[in-house]
């Protein structure tokens, strides 16, 4: 069942009912200022850090679920409603939401009045612009009242939701002309405030929540809106809001445009005030003046559209499959950029309070966006590396505002350091910029203790070889990629964190997954050493990689598949010897991606076992059989009900590892079959089952043991976005950046006749035509560049900034 449709020409998803199976959201902002907005205008806004600089309040786990946002109420002769349907929920004569790239447009119509609410964050500005077009679609003159509404958060979202004895006494605002200024705590340690403006004279305003709503009312029935008259309330101590009241009179067919700006301002310490306790409003007014007219708004929208057109132009496919085209050309790279901006911090499943930027997460996200914004990828790599410790370990997370490690989570996730090698290698392959390796990067964000980025990579590599267990496999630490496989925790205390509590010193439990990851990323490290002229170091790295490969085959293979781990007692995890959790997806994917067991047949056995034991119609589950009880030696993974999250859920993040692994063995049909099972555009027709947005990936889909098999959760912010983009663009379609140039090595369904890729690489544009006359899955028979034959399948960069024609024939 569909709830909307793709508009590929406009790069939009068009939702035609407000009653979607779950709130379907979009992200506003590309730089420092961001907003989340749902198809019914719910969500919130923040500057850089969703915890420390939140402008508007949002209550997760609310009833109704998506309640609170940037709302606009229409009062029409006693009848009042909202164009996004929520929160008033009056029936609408027409409803449409268009989620585009960095903007959302919501239209509602009732009783002859149409309201279009367009929201976006202009490039280069720390503000959210909302343009409302109110139109009289009837045949009689209309006089209506319009009320805006935004509830201000007291900056620190965690403190805002917990410290009521203080926060219910500190709210402060100023109102001047048509602008409401939120200045709570500005009188003391803060130098920042928020403002909310409209480009029309006001008929009134409200800044006190209780006055606006009425003591016993909710957002569905605000007293001010119901009465049609603002109270001109000024918040003092209690909860501050921003609400403008405007009188609108329209003849039949007439429309009026209203431009609202919700923004963030930081003032220098010596320029905080105009007068005693009167904030310096000049910077806010300067922003407001830039969006005072429709022409200015249209110009800003054009800049935003050009920004996205430029980013998406780096990789485009033309094929006979519209769903594939829209995923590769529009929605998957768009989601990759959102995950770059947000990591795992702020979605409708992540509150923005508990997590910052992940070390592992952000390095993986790099893989999906590095070709779009390499200069920002470079900055992100250096930020990540600065949270590393001198022994090669790293903070698991860091805060985007301070860029310092998050002490609440700490370190000890032993796969983390290897991902820095992966992210850095991806950047160098894309750009050819080796100078990043010579950048001085702090340890633990301490500018007095630095080393080159290359030294950080060396420490990352050696962190594995310096922390080996009894079988010679890497120690798992607090956890590896699977944060819920906690082999050193042994927790019996309710509410205790599985990830940060180590009840038994982690000197025994080993990870086969980290072994596979080491063999997978290690060759990139060795090649970087070689390219720097460090041949001895490169040779040593290769020897250690080869040794780990053999150890993995000796101690990490269970006969038909790769083991997952050894626990604290040295017992196997993910083995046929286990009663539950006999086989896991992660080591099968990562070890085969690394090429382990390809020559000896173990890799093929492992992937056959995945298909036999883990595959479902909605994707590949994480492990089987599901855990039916709590295992003290395994930790959080066994706390979830069977079929959910890490306990045999379809964890979409590692499904693409199996896709990539299948291409290693040349299985193009199987790789694309798996791709289609979890790619959202292919699931649009079953949205009532899937529930999440049909334009972006989710972290998890309920597995075959779950009550709601096929139902997704945790959409948007997931490494699924980057890894699926890598799987389809690099491994299946086969266009891969490499140290030496652009490698072409497709692995596709044999029935495909071919396709065309446009790829911008190191300043050149390559139009790559893939022909498959013999209907094979893999193998480049010939490659020409501008008509000249190329030996092998790597295109050496031309470097002239021109467009070049590449023709590839498979065979």
Automatic annotation (TrEMBL):
GO terms for biological process: carbohydrate metabolic process. Gene3D superfamilies: 1.50.10.10, Glycoside hydrolase, family 65, N-terminal domain, Maltose phosphorylase, domain 3, mpn423 like domain. Residues 11-281 form the Glycosyl hydrolase 94 supersandwich domain. InterPro entries: 6-hairpin_glycosidase_sf, 6hp_glycosidase-like_sf, Gal_mutarotase_sf_dom, GH65_N, GH94_catalytic, GH94_Enzymes, GH94N_CBP, Glyco_hydrolase_94_b-supersand. One of its GO terms (molecular function) is glycosyltransferase activity. The keyword Transferase applies. Residues 307-734 form the Glycosyl hydrolase 94 catalytic domain. Keywords: Glycosyltransferase, Transferase. It comes from the Bacteria. This is Cellobiose phosphorylase.
């Amino acid at each position: 069942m569909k709830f909307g449709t793709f508009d590929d020409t406009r790069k939009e998803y068009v939702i035609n009912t407000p009653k979607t199976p779950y709130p379907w959201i979009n992200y506003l902002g590309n730089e420092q200022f961001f907003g989340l907005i749902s198809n019914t205008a719910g969500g919130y806004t923040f500057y850089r850090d969703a915890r420390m600089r939140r402008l508007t309040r949002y209550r997760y786990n609310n009833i109704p679920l998506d309640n609170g946002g940037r709302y606009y109420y229409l009062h029409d002769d006693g009848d009042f409603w909202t164009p996004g349907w929520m929160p008033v929920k009056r029936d609408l004569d027409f409803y449409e939401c268009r989620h585009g790239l960095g903007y959302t447009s919501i239209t509602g119509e009732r009783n002859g009045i149409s309201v279009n609410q367009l929201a976006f964050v202009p490039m280069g500005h720390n503000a959210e612009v909302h343009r409302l077009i109110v139109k009289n679609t009837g045949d009689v003159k209309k006089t209506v009242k319009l009320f805006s509404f935004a509830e201000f958060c007291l900056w620190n979202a965690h403190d805002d939701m917990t410290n009521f004895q203080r926060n219910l006494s500190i709210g402060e605002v100023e109102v001047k002309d048509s602008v409401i200024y939120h200045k709570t705590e500005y009188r003391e340690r803060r130098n920042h405030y928020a403002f909310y403006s409209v480009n029309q004279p006001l008929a009134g305003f409200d800044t006190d929540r209780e006055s606006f709503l009425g003591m016993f009312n909710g957002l569905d029935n605000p007293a001010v809106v119901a009465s049609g008259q603002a109270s001109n309330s000024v918040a003092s101590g209690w909860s501050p809001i921003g609400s403008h009241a405007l009188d609108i009179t329209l003849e039949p067919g007439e429309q009026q445009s209203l431009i609202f700006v919700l923004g963030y301002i930081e003032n220098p310490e010596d320029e905080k005030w105009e007068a005693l306790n009167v904030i310096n409003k000049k910077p806010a007014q300067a922003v407001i003046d830039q969006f005072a007219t429709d022409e200015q708004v249209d110009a800003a929208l054009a800049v935003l559209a050009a920004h996205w057109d430029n980013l998406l132009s780096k990789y485009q496919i033309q094929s006979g499959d519209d769903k594939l085209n829209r995923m590769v050309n529009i929605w998957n790279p768009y989601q990759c950029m959102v995950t770059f901006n947000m990591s795992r911090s702020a979605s409708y499943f992540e509150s923005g309070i508990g997590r910052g930027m992940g070390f592992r997460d952000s390095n993986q996200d790099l893989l999906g966006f590095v070709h779009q914004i390499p200069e920002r990828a470079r900055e992100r790599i250096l930020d990540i590396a600065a949270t590393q410790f001198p022994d090669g370990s790293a903070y698991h997370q860091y805060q985007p505002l301070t860029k310092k490690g998050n002490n609440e989570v700490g370190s000890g996730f032993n796969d983390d350091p290897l991902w820095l090698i992966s992210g850095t290698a991806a950047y160098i392959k894309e750009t050819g910029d080796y100078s990043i390796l010579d950048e001085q990067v702090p340890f633990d964000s301490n500018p007095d203790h630095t080393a080159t980025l290359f030294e950080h990579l060396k420490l990352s590599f050696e962190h594995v070889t310096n922390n080996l267990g009894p079988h010679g496999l890497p120690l798992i630490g607090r956890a590896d990629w699977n944060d819920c496989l906690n082999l050193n925790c042994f927790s019996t205390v309710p509410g205790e964190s599985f990830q940060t509590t180590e009840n038994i010193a982690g000197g025994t439990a080993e990870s086969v997954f980290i072994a596979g990851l080491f063999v997978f990323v290690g060759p990139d490290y060795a090649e970087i050493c070689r390219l720097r002229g460090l041949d001895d170091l490169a040779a040593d790295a290769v020897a250690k990689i080869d040794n780990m490969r053999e150890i993995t085959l000796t101690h990490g293979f269970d006969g038909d598949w790769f083991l997952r781990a050894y626990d604290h007692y040295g017992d196997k995890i993910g083995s046929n010897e286990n009663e539950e959790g006999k086989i896991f997806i992660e080591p099968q994917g990562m070890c085969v991606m690394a090429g382990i067991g390809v020559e000896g047949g173990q890799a093929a056995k492992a992937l056959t076992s995945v298909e036999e034991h883990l595959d479902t119609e909605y994707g590949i589950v994480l492990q089987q059989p599901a855990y039916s009880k709590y295992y003290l030696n395994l930790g959080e993974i066994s706390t979830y009900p069977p079929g959910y999250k890490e306990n045999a859920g379809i964890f979409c993040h590692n499904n693409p590892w199996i896709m990539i692994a299948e291409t290693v063995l040349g299985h193009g049909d199987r790789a694309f079959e798996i791709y289609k099972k979890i790619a959202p555009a292919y699931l649009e027709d079953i949205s009532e089952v899937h529930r999440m947005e049909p334009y972006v990936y989710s972290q998890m889909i309920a597995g075959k043991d779950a009550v709601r098999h096929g139902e997704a959760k945790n959409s948007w912010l997931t490494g699924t976005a980057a890894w699926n983009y890598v799987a389809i663009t690099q491994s299946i379609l086969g266009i891969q950046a490499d140290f030496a140039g652009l490698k072409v090595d497709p692995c596709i369904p044999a029935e495909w006749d071919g396709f065309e890729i446009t790829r911008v690489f190191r300043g050149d544009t390559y139009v790559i035509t893939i022909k498959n006359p013999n209907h094979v899955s893999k193998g480049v028979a010939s490659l020409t560049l501008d008509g000249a034959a190329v030996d092998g399948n790597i295109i050496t960069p031309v470097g002239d900034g021109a467009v070049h024609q590449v023709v590839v024939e498979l065979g």
